[in-house]
Amino acid sequence: MVDEESHIKVDEEACARCPERVCLDVCPANVYSYAEPKVFIAYENCVECGTCRIACPFVEWVNPKGGVGISYRYG
Amino acid sequence: MTEKFDAVVVGAGPAGVTAAYVMAKSGIDVVVIERGEYPGSKNVIGGVLYVKTLNDLIPEFWKEAPLERRVVQHSYCLVGNKGHILVNHRNAAESETPNGYTILRAKFDKWYAKKAHEAGATLITKTNVTELLSEDGRIGGVRTDRGDLYANIVVVAEGANTMLCEKAGLIKKPRPDQMAVAAKEMVSLSPDRIQERFGLGEGEGAAIQYIGAPFAGLVGFGFLYTNTESLSVGFGAIISTMVKEQVKPYDLMERFKQEPSVEPFLRDGLVKEYQAHMIPEAGYVGMPRLFSDGILVVGDAAMLANPVTGEGADLAVLSGKMAGEVAVQAHRLGDYTSRRLASYQESLLNSFALKDMKKQSGLLHYIENNTQIMTAYPEALNAVLNEWFKVDGSTRSEKIKRIRSVVTSKRKVTSMLKDLFVLGRKLM
Q: Is residue B36 part of a domain?
């Protein structure tokens, strides 16, 4: 089930200035994409691994609210 | 919803459920709060559950638990540039106690949580804990997206994303060199095909660990496990090394699946699910304080994973059991202070798991500073065997000359001696 609200927020100014944009590389679910000067967040793809939170100092990543987001059938 | 319990457990994975089970069995009023639809819905394993720690808690649990295959074959695959070496070990002691089973988390965690429920624990799902509640400097409960819950003690089993522990000031946010990310697929294949390809009997399983990354400069490894009617295949690496090599987790996994040492096993299989998860790799050195007034930390949140042995789920169970027991003691004495709860970390540090992790500490750091190790040895060994087995008109001594120059071109002799010293000390 997908939430109406994104659980991921970024600082647009920081993104525009960012030299590395590691978010584009480290996310295993292609949540982040870039079209100058904005970073786009497809939060509905998120598998909630939390890698972006570790790799990028600017992203605000929290768990989606209870009951929504990724739900593995096998895991 | 505002209620008071004796204990609150955050997260219904194996660590949290174990703590809840132990507490519930002792009559403690415990509630487990899971943010997913059901326990296991947001969990991923490689992987194998090594049975020892859970067997100590629920003897012969494998007779009733929904497990995949009993692992009788452990293998290392050393992947070189041109070739690979597969070292299979088959455990012929089939009549003895099982060592490990492959599992699928959505199935297993659901069953396990039900055991805790049957023991008396309350399970709440679809509810996210947003923060820990403090009261006079001690943890007194949790805030969720559906209300507050109060408790004498909170066991945090939140997994690799340690937001609650960080907010509570117990740990600093992990660095990219302290965490790995793994991308994995569950590929369905008939049991007959699996058994044929791996040389297994019914119910028997194989576990292969691949070293020699598809890309140089990575610190990580590939894995392949057999489930009842599917294969779990994937690749994980330390995040900082992936950033450095500019490699994406999904691409890494796809590239790995195409390796000649992997692809034949997957042939004709159907991808049923894609998964990705982080694994804590800070090890012993990075292990934070796992307790404070009114709080204990277990499982992945406590950084309990061993990349050398592939242990994680069994360590979650071990820590959950120890935390549960300490919580029961605390409850009996009405004392939930740090001083009382410190015995949890003491027990953990004296366990086999942590003694090994302590010995290994610094290993990952050494490898991260000498990433060549991950590829040099598999490549060198492959080059040696390529020469050894080739019949091309050269004499043995000509071959040995070539072997010597190839090996030393992969890694300097002085470095190899240093590796032997460091790795030998940390692994033996």
A: yes
